[in-house]
Amino acid sequence: MASPKLVSAIDESGAVLCVYDRDAKADSWKAVPPKKTTRGYAKAVLDVFLPAGYPHTVTPDYTPYQIYDSLQAFSSTIAGLLSSRAVLQGFGVGDSSSSATGAVLLTVLQESTGRLATILFAHRFGQAIEPECKRYRFLADLLNDSALFLDVLSPLLPGYPRVLALCGAGVLRALCGVGAGAAKASLSAHFARNGNLAELNAKDGSQETVISLLGMLTGSLFVRAVSGNAAVWAWMAVLVAAHLATNYAAVRAVRMRSLNRQRAQLVLTHYVHTGRVLDPAQAAARERILTWRSPGVSFASSFPRSNEITAEDLRRHRDDRYVVATQQRQQWYHVASKQWRHTVKLFMKEGATPRDTLEAWFKGLRLCGLDDWSQERGEKTMSATVKKGEKDEELLSDEFWRALASAGWDLDAGALETGAAVRIRVE
Fold this sequence. Notes:
Layout: E1 8-10, E2 16-23, E3 28-32, H1 38-47, H2 62-91, H3 100-129, H4 133-153, H5 159-191, H6 197-225, H7 229-253, E4 258-260, H8 261-274, H9 280-286, E5 297-299, H10 311-316, E6 322-334, E7 339-349, H11 354-367, H12 370-376, H13 392-395, H14 398-406, E8 410-415, E9 423-424
Helix pairs in contact: 2-4, 2-6, 2-7, 3-5, 4-5, 4-7, 8-11, 8-12
């Protein structure tokens, strides 16, 4: 049997760091490092800003997201310098009649309102950010850009309206900080593959630092060249448009593997009419960022009120870990079918799993007329595959769950409930 021999050393990405030649006389191995090339130097620079083992230690959608995210940060930094100049003008910089104390008090008022808004926003929407991280990531930049416009508008306003504009900008900027921070944390967890979440966040901070520096250097020249209200507003519109376009492209590039309400609806609707399960990339191409509405189905966020759950509901779902209850007194208008329909509320039982919530959501969609949603999305119906009259149990077979898993969906990630999780105990 031949003796083992040392061949090479590689890094986490599989790149060869060193090869070895056997020295027969010394009965040892001689290290032969590869020659440095221009490409090698460029890779060494990129390694400072990319996770170790890139691209094998991140998901495939990490690269397009980071490219667009860097572009949006660059344009946002320049727009931020224009708005900062406007804020300083609003504070009275360069005006001998302005009071430094007044500027300090206004800053305190801005900070106070912003921090109160942060607390309220986190309490009201904190649980919805992770399941809807793509929406809140884009919404955060919408709020930030609105704050920039209020900053630019503030010098043109008289006393009290100016204070309101600056405080409003502070509130919007604070909401952006909460939404963007939480959404980016969820996205980072999605991108990380090998338990490298902390390193990925650290490298993301390094990337943002470089982009911000480049943006400030470019913006310093830009601010000096742009003067006059018309020019400022025109360039703000251009920069904000570029910022939102690149940010939208960034979140569109993300292919989340968890099934939130919208993705579950897309996947299940497609399966009902074609017999095939969409994978995360196909669902991401159909997913809407801001305009999607829940189709009259919701999870209970408080204890059941009187008569919300009937005895028939409990009997029908005796063996399930959920109760699907039709709210006869509450209706919603379905535009595609031009009909009023009853809303459906889902009550999860104690011990329910993420798979149970997905099953309950699907049955709720069926009660609301799932077949019509494919027409709204423009999909072709193949009624020969699954007819509307078939039982839900036949649709939710083991084959369906295996198809979901093989398509790449994470069935253990609970991303359907966006509010307080309430469980009922049935005996």
